[in-house]
Specification:
There is one protein chain. The protein contains six helices and twelve strands. By secondary structure, it is an alpha/beta fold. It has a single domain, classed as 3-Layer(aba) Sandwich (Rossmann fold). The strands form three sheets. Strands 1, 4, 5, 6, 7, 8, 9 and 10 form an eight-stranded mixed sheet that branches. It has a two-stranded antiparallel ribbon with strand order 2-3. The chain has a two-stranded antiparallel sheet with strand order 11-12. Helix 1 runs antiparallel to helix 2. The longest helix is centred in the N-terminal third of the chain and has 19 residues. About 35% of the residues are buried. The structure holds uracil. The site of uracil has 9 residues, from helix 6.
């Protein structure tokens, strides 16, 4: 964890870095982008769930009876920030297929870069669940911070944010507003440009994922 960003874990595994490079490349088409994002998300899910508690259960193997670990503690809920979060959601569900899923629709105003929420649908028992929120691009951090605030209003006390690329501004903003929320990312990029895009980044994640530009 870099000292300047105590809330951030950069998951710089060679497999992730390799796939991320091809995700960033402008010559990677929609189908490959979707597949790579899914694969990187599986690997990020593995790392973001590393600290989940386990408890022993007694099972019978074909050889003997043994006490062996299973995940314990709060049940998981994945929350996707629309629309690009859905590209990561697929990979997370591959690894955590029993998780419940919520969706938050949030848009940033291109002029002010402020976040406006237009959709919020999560499981009723959110207060009893640990949330893994997925959003590929942590840019200014305003959308993610607003989404986390809304989840906390709904009773959620344990939230982790997992993104693909983080900008220093976004990580700092999350730490200022929600210091209790750990952030996992595949890379910490250099800066935001005047339009609020991450540099070097990968462009608009939603457009890359769905071929809308
Ligand atoms: N959202 C994106 O899709 N890309 C960025 O670079 C920043 C925000």
């Amino acid at each position: 964890m870099p000292l300047e960003f105590p809330n951030l874990t950069v998951v710089n595994h060679p497999l992730i870095q390799h796939k991320l490079t091809w995700l960033r490349s402008e010559s990677t088409g929609t189908d490959s982008f979707r597949q790579l994002l899914r694969e990187v998300s599986q690997l990020l899910a593995y790392e973001a769930t590393r600290a989940l508690p386990t408890a022993l259960v007694t099972i019978k193997t074909p050889m003997t009876t043994a006490q062996l670990p299973v995940i314990s503690g709060k049940k998981l809920c994945l929350v996707s920030i629309l629309r690009a979060g859905n590209g990561m959601l697929e990979g997370f569900l591959d690894v955590i297929p029993l998780a419940r899923v919520g969706h938050i629709g949030i848009e940033r105003n291109p002029d002010t870069l402020e976040a406006a929420m237009y959709y919020f649908k999560v499981p009723n028992d959110l207060a009893c669940r640990q949330v893994l929120m997925v959003d590929p691009m942590l840019a200014t951090g305003h959308s993610c911070a607003a989404a986390v605030a809304r989840l906390k209003d709904a009773g959620c006390t344990q939230i982790t944010l997992v993104c693909l690329l983080a900008a220093p501004d976004g990580v700092r903003h999350m730490h200022e507003v929600h210091p209790d929320v750990p952030v996992f990312a595949a890379a910490l990029d250099s800066h935001l440009n005047e339009q609020g895009y991450i540099v070097p980044g990968l462009g608009d994640a939603g457009d890359r994922l769905y071929g809308t530009r």
